[in-house]
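Subject: Sanity check before I submit

Could someone independently write out the structure tokens for this chain? I want to compare against mine line by line before I put it in a report. The sequence has 91 residues.
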Amino acid sequence: MGITYSTYEAKARFSEVLRQVRAGETVTVTYRGEPVAEIHPIQQRPRTTEERLAELEGRGELVPPTGPPEPFRAVMDRPGALEQFLADRDE
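---
Independent answer below. Compare away.
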């Protein structure tokens, strides 16, 4: 599980926790033995679209397509509801 501190330990050793995070480590903070937070380094460079998609797929928040996209269908040029209503009203 990596580096773990209780809330009391994290508070008492906060400078040490920050040094570990700056070194690239992820620190888990627990409350009564249950993980409640993770402290991790922020990313310094913008991620590419591919990296973001891979992260979402890894977390199960995105399901990649299984085939090619459907072809684009043009919108039919037909009168809208208002035009139809006005035409019916005038009859």
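---
OP: Matches mine. For the report I'm noting this point. The chain is about 40% helix and 15% strand.
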